[in-house]
Write a structure and sequence with these properties.
Elements lengths: L1 E5 L9 H14 L3 E4 L30 H11 L4 E8 L5 H14 L4 E6 L4 H6 L8 H15 L5 E4 L4 E5 L13 E4 L3 H10 L2 E3 L11 H17 L8 E6 L20 H14 L3 E4 L6 H14 L6
Length: 313
């Protein structure tokens, strides 16, 4: 089992020295990967329902670092961590510029980029960015991924599609990773699972939240379905990487009368949950150690590295 962590993208922890501390501590503690989230702008009025809270509310003051730029910073400020876009809202950006930026960061990181992708949930942000029709975000995502993979060949390629077209061109230099950085598909809806089966190198869902619990029993069902879908596409299910994001990790004990959430309640309980996920074939678990202060964040990260990671069965 490998482990990853979330990087701050907004607020008082999202400064150069504090981001460097996150990355240096993560590498020193033996984490494998770092997650970089994605928003470009946040409209002042948001009516779209956020899928990862029970009430559908998305709380933010409007601040958000740009994902691809931050990934390039991570490449320069780290040596070993895999740099994962988690997740990139594919239709938000010009596909040629995105392919070029991903390739550049993969080169400068010496092949450490993984592209976690999603179709998005905020219609207002699509409108602000003049992105393709929000109602067709799945189709535009598929087309943009196809464009990236064409461009990463380094050959003269052209494209004529529903959402984007260009005449023959070269996009060089190509990524270090061949035929390109791995693409992990986020989400656990049926369309997301179908996208993994058709296009993905990995599956990257969010679980362990009240709105998206994804406990082992449900994961088992989803993975069985994903195997069927992948094999129906003539692809090898066993070649997929399964990376599960559990945004909440708490070493404390839940309040009396409340059910224990996965990966909480102390190291022993978390180890049982990790073992259950490993038995299902999950290869990587990603936790959120971001606290109100840098010290609180680093203490949580180091505690997990000392109390949990060495004891994983």
């Amino acid at each position: 089992m490998h482990f990853g962590f979330y990087l701050p993208t907004r607020g008082p922890l999202a400064t150069r020295p504090q981001l460097k501390t996150f990355l240096e501590t993560g590498e020193a503690c033996g984490f494998r990967s770092v997650m970089v989230a994605d928003h470009i702008v946040l409209p002042a009025k948001i009516e779209s329902a956020y899928p990862y809270t029970v009430k559908g509310n998305f709380v933010s003051a409007g601040e958000c670092m740009e994902q691809l730029t931050l990934m390039a910073f991570v490449a320069a400020a780290s040596e070993r961590l895999r740099i994962v876009s988690s997740v990139m809202i594919v239709p938000h950006r010009n596909p040629i510029m995105t392919a070029k930026s991903i390739a550049t960061t993969d080169i400068l990181s010496e092949g450490r980029v993984t592209v976690g992708v999603g179709v998005g949930w905020m219609a207002e942000e699509f409108e602000a960015l003049n992105a393709p029709d929000f109602r067709k975000r799945g189709q535009s995502t598929d087309e943009y991924i196809a464009i990236w993979r064409k461009l990463w060949t380094g050959e003269a390629v052209s494209h004529r599609g529903e959402f984007y077209s260009f005449k023959e061109l070269y996009c060089q230099p190509v990524p270090v990773q061949r035929p390109g950085p791995p693409i992990w598909i986020g989400g656990h809806s049926m369309p997301a699972l179908r996208r993994v089966a058709r296009l993905g190198d990995g599956w990257h869902p969010v679980g362990a939240t009240a709105a998206s619990p994804l406990p082992p029993a449900e994961m088992r069902e989803k993975l069985a379905l994903l195997r069927e879908l992948t094999e129906a596409e003539g692809r090898d299910f066993d070649a997929l990487t399964i990376s599960y994001k559990a945004p909440f990790y708490d070493n404390g004990v839940p309040p009396a009368g409340e059910a224990r959430r996965m990966f909480t309640g102390g190291a022993a309980a978390a180890l049982d949950d990790i073992a259950a996920m490993a038995e299902l074939g999950v290869e990587e678990l990603v936790f959120d150690f971001r606290g109100e202060t840098l010290d609180a964040s680093m203490n949580a990260m180091r505690s997990f590295a000392e109390d949990v990671m060495p004891n994983v069965r």
